[in-house]
Design goal:
Elements: H1 2-35, H2 51-54, E1 58-60, E2 67-71, E3 78-80, E4 94-96, E5 101-104, H3 108-111, E6 118-120, E7 125-129, E8 140-142, E9 147-149, E10 164-166, E11 173-174, E12 186-188, E13 193-197, E14 215-217, H4 248-287, H5 293-304, H6 309-312, E15 323-324, H7 334-339, E16 341-347, E17 351-357, E18 363-369, H8 376-389, E19 398-403, E20 408-413, H9 420-425, H10 437-456, E21 472-474, E22 480-482, H11 507-512, H12 517-533, E23 538-540, E24 546-548, H13 549-559, H14 577-590, H15 601-631
Parallel strand pairs: 2-4, 3-5, 4-6, 5-7, 6-8, 7-9, 8-10, 10-12, 11-13, 13-14
Antiparallel strand pairs: 1-2, 15-19, 16-17, 17-18, 18-20, 19-20, 21-22, 23-24
Helix pairs in contact: 10-12, 10-15, 12-14, 14-15
This protein binds 2-acetamido-2-deoxy-beta-D-glucopyranose (NAG) (3 copies).
One 2-acetamido-2-deoxy-beta-D-glucopyranose (NAG) is lined by residues 168-169, 188, 190-191, 206, 208-209.
């Protein structure tokens, strides 16, 4: 009797130990997953608390032996999903990480988790190919609104329990595999770059399951009678076929432009409307002035007291505080930013930028600064300068910033048209409206005015140090402003190692490691060449040789007739050749090797304005003549 009891007791103990071991391994996996991400302290996952009863977003099996579901939608998770973390949760059936800021690949160990039934990863910024393997028990697979590339993996063919498959708004290519999925009820492959004909097994789905794939044909879309044009989707800046394929760097550049352009292009229309609305609201609130003091104090109050005690009570109010620049309503706080849906806009030398849409619809750009070396005081002083200089129409204004030990953020307004770079190089080919000459000149001139403002403040002691076309933001009416001023001085990157500036960096900067106003003029000159030639600042020449744009232009001008230099897109606009040649001369003087031979930015502005004035008269006259002729 006694021995039976002790045997039973032992059995129980062993059972409990096994359970504990399993749960503990799940716990370690979850902790490793969380440790690889930034989550703004919104996960209360602590090693000393119970996974099953107190961790946010975690649900266990009935016997508390395994983790059954992890649901963390819109938790402001930044970063990539590490392999060997969630992929170890053997019993996981539901995984929802939708509407976060996840980047990088989807690890194969997650998609193939043996028990997985529901996988929700939509609205992130995941990249790379789809995993080849998916768990055969999947019922819902949602990967929409990410940046996946590559083909739809045939592994999906084996998911015979699959009911929902959403992959819209990615960059998937290739044909759609013949998916004979009898349980499939909902399918969305819209807005990818898929091609070929729709397999008969999927023709029962509506048009809206396939739209936005210009190379896709057959029912329910149009018949495949017209042979799809073999032109690449993003024809390169210049004749890419002329370059040996080993220039990966170059190809990558084009890729990222294409991404930016797609984002900019797709959103532009919708954003215009919202910006307009916001502008109205903003103006109205700002205009009330003193009369609105009551309203104002309530805005300020929001900052001091964290809204949601349950999520941020621990940290105290001060830590969560965004500092707003003068003239901007402090109508959101850090919590709002973290809660906002966001997408990656791009990665720059100073950090990654995200577009965040706040719950009230406000759109802002949040830049996470990386490798900030300056302390809080220095950071604040620099922000003060940036705030002051941002009060010029051609210098991008910052709205707010945030400084803590682990996180430095700057918040600025979202600019609807994207960057000059995206407008010049993005989405070349079918469907693109080329940027006309007048707009190119207008944007360049306004950027020059922005630089002039920076150069003239505080007795000329400021230098921008990172002038390039992707740092010139373009607004709704093609008004331009220079962004990114003053951030690089906070960072820890040596001038010579910063790859981003390659192509724009003046030759002397490499030696002296110092940016000057004249090196800004050099970079501006490269940007002028860029808009004149439509080419990227680095050009592949013969074989392995890579030329920067100034040297490329020199080599072409020396060997051939000057007009070979200009962007083919500009050739359709009449009577601008003379002006382009004059502009080319200005650009070449800016990129003189000797800094002393370069004009200063004031002189550059005067020169550009002169050629505008001297040419605009006879240009419009000859255009009228053409009109006349047409009417006759
Ligand atoms: C768990 O550990 C953290 C520090 O790691 C501590 O702040 C917290 O009070 C601990 N909680 C419990 C319930 O012991
Ligand atoms: C697929 O997604 C696109 C983009 O979100 C949407 O417009 C379309 O209506 C969806 N199609 C279906 C069948 O739900
Ligand atoms: C551009 O490519 C086309 C076709 O590949 C070729 O015929 C043409 O010579 C190339 N032009 C230049 C400037 O390399």
């Amino acid at each position: 009797m006694c021995s039976l009891l002790s045997f039973l007791f032992l059995l129980l103990c062993v059972h409990a130990l096994v359970i504990d071991a399993d749960l503990n391994s799940d716990k370690q996996a979850l902790l490793a997953f969380a440790a690889a991400l930034h989550h703004g302290h919104r996960l209360n996952w602590e090693a000393n608390t119970s996974v099953c009863s107190s961790w946010i977003g975690v649900k266990c099996t009935a016997d508390q032996s395994h983790v059954l579901a992890v649901r963390l939608p819109a938790k402001g998770l930044f970063g990539s999903i590490a392999t060997n973390t969630l992929g170890k949760l053997d019993s996981l059936q539901v995984l929802s990480l939708r509407s976060n800021l996840l980047i990088g690949n989807l690890p194969a160990d997650i998609s193939s988790l043996p028990s997985l039934r529901y996988l929700y990863l939509q609205q992130n910024k995941l990249t790379g190919n789809l995993p080849a393997l998916f768990s055969s028990g999947l019922i819902v697979l949602d990967l929409s609104y990410n940046s996946f590339t590559g083909k739809i993996s045939v592994g999906i063919q084996k998911l015979d329990r699959l009911s929902v498959l959403n992959m819209q708004k990615n960059s998937l290519i290739g044909p759609i595999p013949d998916l004979k999925l009898s349980k499939l009820k909902h399918l969305n492959l819209s807005y990818n770059n898929l091609d070929g004909s729709i397999p008969s097994s999927l023709q029962k789905f509506p048009t809206l399951s396939f739209t936005g794939n210009s190379l896709l044909c057959g029912p329910p879309l149009l018949q495949c009678s017209v042979v799809p044009s073999p032109s690449p989707i993003f024809p390169p800046v210049s004749n890419l076929s002329a370059f040996p394929p080993k220039h990966k760097h170059f190809a990558k550049k084009i890729g990222s432009w294409a991404v930016i352009a797609t984002i900019a292009g797709g959103l532009a229309g919708f954003l215009m409307l919202i910006m307009l609305l916001l502008l109205c609201i903003f103006k109205k609130k700002g205009g009330k002035g003193g009369g609105a003091s009551k309203e104002k104090s309530s805005y300020a109050g929001k900052n001091v007291k964290p809204k949601d005690e349950s999520t941020s009570g621990v940290q105290g109010a001060e830590k969560n505080k965004l500092t707003f620049f003068e003239g901007f309503l402090d109508n959101f706080d850090l919590e709002d930013l973290l809660r906002a849906s966001a997408e990656v806009l791009g990665k720059g030398s100073c950090g990654t930028s995200y577009k965040a849409v706040l719950e009230d619809g406000t759109m802002v750009v949040v830049k996470r600064l990386k490798e900030v070396i300056s302390g809080k005081r220095e950071f604040e002083q620099q922000m003060e300068i940036i705030g002051r200089l941002g009060k010029h129409p051609n210098v991008a204004a910052l709205r707010a910033y945030y400084y803590s030990k682990d996180e430095k953020l700057v918040v600025s307004d979202f600019v609807p048209n994207g960057s000059f770079s995206a407008l010049l190089h993005g989405n070349r080919g079918s469907g693109r409206t080329p940027l006309d000459w007048d707009t190119r000149v207008k944007i360049s001139l306004e950027a020059a005015h922005g630089i002039k403002h920076i150069h003239s403040e505080s007795n000329g002691k400021f230098v921008h140090g990172n002038i390039k076309s992707s740092n010139v933001l373009v607004g709704r009416n093609y008004e331009a402003c220079v962004s990114d001023f003053g951030l690089s001085s906070l960072m820890n990157f040596p001038v010579t190692r910063s790859r981003i500036m390659v192509g724009y960096r003046a030759p002397e900067v490499v030696e002296t490691r110092k940016f000057t106003q004249k090196s800004d003029v050099y970079s501006f000159g490269v940007m002028l060449l860029e808009m004149l030639t439509g080419k990227s600042p680095l050009q592949s020449a013969r074989q392995d040789e890579i030329l920067d744009l100034p040297r490329w232009v020199q080599s072409v001008v020396r060997e051939e007739w000057t007009s070979e230099v200009f962007d083919a897109e500009l050739m359709r606009f009449p009577n601008i050749e003379e002006e382009m040649v004059q502009m080319l001369q200005i650009a070449m003087s800016c990129v003189a090797r000797n800094p002393d031979q370069r004009p200063n930015i004031n002189e550059v502005i005067n020169l550009i304005e002169e050629i505008r004035q001297s040419n605009s008269g006879n240009r419009s006259a000859s255009e009228e003549k053409i009109e006349d002729r047409r009417q006759r």
